[in-house]
Write a structure and sequence with these properties.
The protein is α/β, with parallel strands linked by helices. It folds into 2 domains: 357 residues, Alkaline Phosphatase, subunit A; 79 residues, Arylsulfatase, C-terminal domain. Helix content is 31%, strand content 16%. It is built from 12 helices and 15 strands. The strands form 3 sheets. Strands 1, 2, 3, 4, 5, 8, 9, 10 and 11 form a 9-stranded mixed beta sheet that branches. Helix 2 packs across helix 7 and helix 6 packs across helix 7. The N and C termini lie far apart (87 Å).
């Protein structure tokens, strides 16, 4: 009898063990399935109001608007730099670009072990980069495949395509761009008339359709559009020329004292409008593929622009400045996040978010440990997704080069979320500026004389940031070096081995 009971007990124990093991396996599989796919749309040089869901009147963006409506729109989204390469490096590293020694489009990232795709690979993701790179270089060993991407389609050191039409500034058969323009790897399979935005999207859709079913994916969908040189499909250009004529839109300008000429403030660029429509169509194609295979609800979409627009040919009203300036037009960009199974549709967040935040947000979505505030300049958006606010913070920018074509002046800036005050330190002269962004979005009323204590507090914090992070960075022009040392009261040791 005891022998029989012992056998029954042993059998029950084994059954329980198998059941528990099965339960653990099931839970583990569920946990793995809960990791969302991640798609980061990074647009090049898109202005804050260049989407219909952000107030554009000429540009048509129904697919992007729909995706934005399925998530949370960020009305005060900031990039980390008013120019491309540093901002791109921030997204990948979670750091203010000055901490990477970068502030200009000629600068490249140095190798690290904690870039976002490296972290995601550890978490079991398949990682793809499609489109513009312009963040690292082969020499520095910071091209997409060097830092954790399994696939690189079209990514190079180029800051823009020589042409948006095939073969994209590359000689057919060579696939190697010359200089700083051209898109590699796309001459094969292309044909005359093929448009770059469409081709990149076709490549991305193919990656999604043919992916490994048992792994989540991270798609870095970094379009070259709408960077110069501006080109678009002829039929779309004609469509917008007619629309502009039918609306009776007239050119309006603002005068820039710096460049001594007028800069456009109205939406009358038909080529630019056509480029945006092609982008919208491409976003719609990627979303459609994910809906088709049932992955849409568990995909985290993030949409961001790397910096503001080129204000010599497109508007940025009502904001002041544009690309290459630390005014709102250069650093405030259109952005939103959508994750249908997680984020309430139709949400709005009016407090600041930061391009560096993408790093921690994606890591948390992937179930990975978050870096501490001392390690990164990155805050996860999960509180926002749950209907809460992020802790207030101060953000800093640094661009020590005047870019006259866009009306930009060399400067550094700091924004304080609690007071909504923004202090801009000129690196040209002693005419510093202070604006209440909450009341003066266009930055037309410099209130520095009326608020000396506020200006002084922000100045001290900005000086502290610069003194800490300028050493080891690339040196600006000698005139800006002199002004910086005069204003900071210290001598800066720059990295003279890199330009």
């Amino acid at each position: 009898m005891k022998s029989i009971l012992h056998k029954i007990s042993k059998l029950l124990s084994l059954t329980c063990a198998f059941a528990c093991a099965a339960s653990v396996t099931t839970q583990a599989s569920a946990a793995e399935q809960e990791q969302p796919n991640v798609v980061v749309f990074l647009i090049d040089d898109m202005g804050w109001k260049d989407l219909a869901c952000f107030g554009a009147e000429l540009y048509e963006t129904p697919n992007i608007d729909k995706l934005c409506g399925d998530g949370v729109r960020f009305s005060q989204a900031y990039t980390s730099a008013a120019i491309c390469s540093p901002a791109r490096a921030s997204l990948l590293s979670g750091l203010n670009p000055l901490k990477l020694g970068m502030w200009n489009h000629t600068h490249h990232m140095a190798p690290r072990e904690d870039f976002l795709p490296q972290k995601l690979k550890t978490a079991g993701y398949q990682n793809w980069h499609v489109g513009k790179w312009h963040a690292g270089s082969p020499k520095d060993k910071t091209m997409p495949k060097d830092i954790g991407f399994d696939v690189n389609v079209g990514g190079w050191t180029s800051w823009g395509p020589k042409s948006y039409f095939w073969p994209y500034g590359v000689k057919p058969g060579s696939d190697v761009p010359s200089g700083n323009t051209g898109v590699p790897g796309l001459t094969k399979g292309g044909q005359q008339g093929e448009f770059l935005t469409d081709r990149l999207t076709t490549e991305a859709v193919s990656l999604i359709a043919n992916r490994k079913a048992d792994q989540p994916f991270y798609l870095n969908m970094w379009y070259y559009s709408v960077h110069n040189k501006k080109e678009a499909k002829k039929e779309l250009i004609e469509k917008y020329k007619k629309k502009i004529a039918d609306k009776g839109t007239k050119a309006a300008y603002r005068h820039s004292e710096l460049v001594g000429k007028n800069l456009i403030t109205t939406e009358i660029n038909a080529v630019y409008a056509a480029m945006i429509e092609s982008l919208d169509d491409s976003v719609g194609r990627i979303v459609a593929q994910l809906k088709k295979d049932g992955s849409y609800d568990n995909t985290l979409f993030i949409f961001y622009s790397d910096n503001g627009p080129t204000t010599n040919d497109v508007p940025c009203a009502p904001l002041n400045g544009g690309k290459n300036t630390n005014y709102e037009g250069g650093i405030r960009v259109p952005a939103f996040a959508a994750w249908p199974s997680k984020i309430k549709a139709g949400s709005e967040y009016s407090n600041p978010v930061y391009i560096c935040d993408i790093y921690s947000t994606v890591l948390e979505a992937a179930g990975q440990p978050l870096p501490s505030p001392s390690e990164k300049d990155s805050t996860s958006w999960f509180p926002i997704f749950e209907g809460n606010k992020l802790k207030p913070r101060q953000l800093c920018w640094y661009f020590p080069r005047s870019q006259t074509v866009y009306g930009g002046v060399a400067s550094a800036a700091i924004y304080d979320e609690n007071s909504q005050m923004k202090y801009i330190m000129s690196l040209v002269d002693n005419n510093d500026e202070l604006y209440n962004i909450g009341e003066d979005l266009a930055e037309t009323n410099n209130i520095i004389q009326q608020n000396p204590e506020v200006a002084e507090n922000l100045r001290k914090n900005l000086h502290s940031f610069l003194k800490t992070n300028l050493p080891g960075s690339r040196a600006p022009a000698s005139a800006q070096q002199k002004i910086l040392e005069q204003k900071l009261g210290v001598s800066i040791k720059y990295n003279t081995s890199k330009k």
